[in-house]
Amino acid sequence: MTNSLLSMKNVTAFYGGSQALYGLSLQVHQGEVVALMGRNGAGKTTAIKTICRMIRHKEGEILFCGTDLDPLTSHRAARLGIGLVPEGRRCFATLSVEENLVAAARTGHWNLAQVYRLFPQLRDRKGKSARTLSGGEQQMLAIGRALMTNPRLLLLDEATEGLAPLVRKEIWSAVAELRKGRDLTILLVDKSPRELAKVADRCVVLERGRDAWTGTFEELTPEIALRHLGV
Amino acid sequence: MSAPERGFNFGLASLLLAVPLIAAYMGEPYYLTLATRIAILSIAAVGLNFALGLGGLVSFGHAAYFGLGGYAAGILANHALKGQAILDWPFELGGTTFMPTIWLVAVFAAGLAAFLIGLLSLRTTGVYFIMITLAFAQMLYYFAVSWPAYGGEDGLPVYVRNSFPGLNTLDPVQFFLISYAVLLIALALFSLLRNSNFGVALRASRQNPGRVASLGIEVFRLRLAAFVLSGAITGLAGALYADLNRFVSPQMLSWHMSGEIMVFIILGGAGRLFGPVAGAVLYIILEQSLGEVSDYWQIFLGLLLLCVVLYARGGLIGAVLDRRLG
């Protein structure tokens, strides 16, 4: 895994006058599953939003497949192959499940049949309005919607937040399923190291807007976890 | 679309066809003219429904496209009647009374105007968008008022009813049927596009444009396409309206007209297939019935509009069907 799909070097980003990233550097290779971890306010969601151009970075460099993302708008970054599953799911409430899926569909491996195979619950509710779905189903829909754009890199921001344990299990098994093919690269943010260890190849720990530690989950000793994550 | 809504739509479409035909059979041509007016104004509102109902674009300047369509029809017919060319250079362009050609010109003129206005106005949102669209429409209104070549403030009479191959357009029934057929085509196009990927993305952009962009769709282009289509259809309605009245005036471009078209949609139900038709029917019925009671009938319309906005967000169709469906 030498070819870097995503490369961030010394990236700084701001919310108005408030700095959120202080020189973040990060490499994600083709086919990898990388977990982005850190305490609240460490900059995980900001990093995700910067990659998909919802926030513009001020300094540093972000390369995706060798293309500088700096001049690109959000939709152009998505067209390059960056798929986002946003925090809080954010499905289009008044559209039906199927309409949510086809709204931005692009041709490729992922189509309605593939998404319904991954999440059979969605097939059963395809005609229902997204607002009538449970939290877990909405999360599945958000993942399905991002997959329908046939991304090369899937960004999952707090995919299991606020979900019941059984539903969380379903989401994690779906992520494990996505990992199998190794043709989809995944960068995921979550607060559960135990679950992340099962699906991620390695993790990057953020602290105060910069990368504080990088390694595999075997290398993430309790001392390192306590120092950087407080767990 | 639910089965009751399909039934309501079918019923409304049937009534709009049957009532004027029966009225004509019984020798009441007034109702036929009224139904023709409803059909044409419904087309204009279907046009606005693309932008407002699907895209959430509150355009307060659709009279611009309605008026442009009207003037396209009026100018072409006027020149044809006088036998004068509209342009002598770089090529000679004469007038025409051939309806399909007039419709094409109206659609093109209104679509082009919507494209140019959309290019600027769609860079803004909210109240700024409303104000910019209103400002452009008022610019065209004042231009028409101060353009003496085509009647200025007095407007431009169209002395002939434009022709359609195989039909006698001077016959009110046949002209109504032409307007009704165009309305059905506009509704079919709306239905087709609303359920296409384009329509779904447009409806999604109404809820969260940032999220749509993060899925790889350029929201500006999407909205511009909807805005142009919206303006073009409203322009087509303007051409038919000029033919119905055999007269075009700057009033077709005024903000009152923009407001009227918007009221049809709000009354009927924004984004709903037959919302504009239901709204136009209700508006014209109120205008005719309350207008006999008082010159200030619009006070009652205002109260009704207030009730719809406060208690029936889905408009008339929503109030009737959503309550029935629980």
Order of strands side by side in the largest beta sheet of chain B?
1-2
CATH class of chain A: Alpha Beta
Radius of gyration of chain B: 19 Å
- CATH topology value of chain A: Rossmann fold
* Total number of strands of chain A: 10
Describe this structure in words.
The complex is a heterodimer of chains A (231) and B (326). Chain A is of the alpha/beta class. Chain A has 9 helices and 10 strands. In chain A, the strands form 2 sheets. A 6-stranded mixed beta sheet of chain A has the order 6-7-8-3-9-10, sandwiched between helices. Chain A has a 4-stranded antiparallel beta sheet with strand order 2-1-4-5. Chain A is globular. Chain B is an all-alpha fold and 326 residues long. Chain B has a single domain, classed as ABC transporter involved in vitamin B12 uptake, BtuC (Orthogonal Bundle), CATH 1.10.3470. Helices cover 73% and strands 3% of the residues of chain B. In chain B, a hairpin with a 5-residue loop joins strand 1 and strand 2 (93-94). In chain B, helix 10 packs across helix 11 (275-293). The longest helix of chain B has 27 residues, at 219-245. Chain B is globular. Classes of the chains: A alpha/beta (231), B mainly alpha (326). Chain A binds chain B through residues 52, 54, 73-75, 78-79, 83-84, 86, 90, 92-95, 99-100, 102-106, 145-146, 149, and chain B through 197, 200-201, 203-204, 207-208, 210-219.
